[in-house]
Amino acid sequence: PSHPAPFTEMGKIIKGQRKGKSPIFRAHVKHRVAPAKFRTLDFNERNGYVKGVVREIIHDPGRGAPLAVVMFRHPHKYGAVKETFLAAEGMHTGQFIYCGKKAQLAVGNVLPIGNLPEGTIICNVEQNVGDRGVMARASGNSAVIVGHNAEANKTRLKLPSGAKKVVSGSVRAMVGIVAGGGRNEKPILKAGVSYHKYKVKRNCWPYVRGVCMNPVDHPHGGGNHQHLGTPSTCGRRMPPGKKCGLIAARRTGRISGGLGSIKD
Q1: For residue 7, what pLDDT band results from cuts at 50, 70 and 90?
Q2: Per-residue model confidence (pLDDT) at position 8
Q3: Which helix (H) or strand (E) is 20 found in, with range?
Q4: Is the pTM of this model over 0.85?
Q5: Is 190 exposed, middle or buried (0-12, 13-18, 19+ CB in 10 A)?
Q6: Is pLDDT above 60 for 264?
Q7: Contact criterion met (CB below 8 Å) for 108 and 67
Q8: Would you state the pLDDT for residue 2?
Q9: Phi/psi of residue 165, each to 5°?
Q10: Burial (Cβ within 10 Å: 0-12, 13-18, ≥19) of residue 62
Q11: Angle at 128 between CA 114 and CA 119, to 5 degrees
């Protein structure tokens, strides 16, 4: 006799679940040029400086900021070493770049932030010594040195988000702001531009709202009018098929008040 099929499905697999396993949501990295990083921290940078020259300014698909190809002499043998830096605004081909503790304060140079005066505008800041730059890297972004604590070798930064962060005074940063600022000011105008923008990034466009789906497709779907029907917030430990909307929201609604409410 035929047995009934086990009752396993309550609906379709929503997009948030498919992103964990499906290969179609991986980043599109086939045409990326190179990871944008500082030199590996060595004796020369810790105690003096090294000199490089900007060979060219190039575009990296999927990245808003241009990259600078910088050539350095090999520290131990004959030959050159090519590094790919984030380009700072004002950087040009043929420019000399100095990296190290004793480098001068000039746009494009890479120094430990403990050696920079307060108020200096920096970008591509390391979070830990030697990680080669992780903060303030998007086009037009920069961080500001707020203050130093020389005894503890700590420096306080203001990040692009407005948050303050204390890091070691030995972490490196590039002087200046990341090139490519004002990228968001140009209007998209048509869907084809968005298509090509996200084609080189990842599969995240077009974005379909849950309320315009059917109940089988999404927890927000269904109804004679497009409405949620339930709160849009959900818990951190909800099952994957229900985990949508505002996940583990601390607060909802519009943010009222100005920047004066942010405490230093």
Answers
A1: very low
A2: 47
A3: helix 15-21
A4: yes
A5: exposed
A6: no
A7: no
A8: 56
A9: -140, 140
A10: middle
A11: 35
Q: Predicted confidence band at 20 (pLDDT cuts at 50, 70, 90)?
A: confident
Distance (Å, rounded) from C-alpha 35 to C-alpha 22? 25
CA gap 50, 99 in Å, rounded: 5
Helix, strand counts (H, E) of the chain? 3, 12
Task: Tell how far CA 70 is from the center of its chain.
Answer: 22
Residues 6+ apart with CB under 8 A from 75: 42, 44, 50
Contact 43, 9 (CB under 8 A): no
Peptide bond into 219 cis (omega under 30): no
What is the pLDDT, as a whole number, of residue 22? 82
Question: Residue 9: its pLDDT value, please?
Answer: 56
In degrees, to the nearest 5, what angle opens at C-alpha 141 toward C-alphas 138 and 147?
130
CA distance readout (Å), 66 to 32, 135, 152, 208, 262:
12, 16, 36, 31, 32
The Cβ of residue 213 has, within 10 Å, a number of other Cβ atoms equal to: 18
The candidate with the shortest Cα–Cα distance to 173, out of 150, 143, 198, is 143
Amino acid at residue number 170? S
For the segment 51-69, what is each residue's pLDDT rounded down to a tens digit?
A: 999 999 999 999 999 999 9
Give the pLDDT score at 217: 93
Query: From CA 103, how far away is CA 96, in angstroms rounded?
Result: 11
- Report the sign of the C-alpha dihedral through residues 208, 212, 215, 220, in that order: positive
Which two structure tokens, joined as six digits, stand for 31? 């045409």
Euclidean distance between CA atoms 198 and 28, whole angstroms: 9
